[in-house]
Amino acid sequence: MKIAIRTVLFHILCILVFALFYFYFQDQFQHQFKDKFDFLDYLLLSTTIQAGVGISDIYPISVYAKLIMIIQQVTLIMTHVFTIYIFTV
């Protein structure tokens, strides 16, 4: 049970950290419907990526933004791989 709680907390931490990255590099992103961004938009983007959905109104317009999104997706994949390994051992 401790592993499951740590995994959930890790995902929440990743969502918050990557939302802060997206907010900091907000000029590297574009929104489909509005010009003004707020932190909640980036939190939604980070949550959809972390959940594996990946669909949002915000999309990257630079290489740096794409790299940050790729890093979050790879972190998510590696977390799932290690979690499955731990639960099957």
Helix and strand arrangement:
Elements: H1 2-24, E1 29-31, H2 39-50, E2 58-60, H3 63-88
CATH topology: Helix Hairpins
User: What's the pLDDT, averaged over the residues?
Assistant: 84
Taking all Cα atoms into account, the compactness measure Rg is: 14 Å
Query: How far from one another are the termini?
Result: 15 Å
Number of domains: 1
| Main beta sheet strand tally, sense and closure | 2 strands, antiparallel
> What's the total helix number?
3
Helix and strand succession? HEHEH
CATH class: Mainly Alpha
Q: What global shape is seen?
A: elongated
CATH architecture: Orthogonal Bundle
- The tally of strands reads 2
Could you give the order of strands across the largest sheet? Answer: 1-2
Low-confidence stretches: none
Structural class: mainly alpha
> Fraction of residues in helices?
55-70%
Strand content: 5-15%
What does this structure look like?
The structure is a single chain. The protein is mainly alpha-helical. The protein has a single domain, classed as Helix Hairpins (Orthogonal Bundle), CATH 1.10.287.70. Helices cover 69% and strands 7% of the residues. The protein contains three helices and two strands. It has helices at 2-24, 39-50, 63-88; strands at 29-31, 58-60. It has a two-stranded antiparallel ribbon. Helix 1 (2-24) packs antiparallel against helix 3. The radius of gyration is 14 Å and the shape is elongated. The two termini are 15 Å apart. The relative contact order is 0.17.
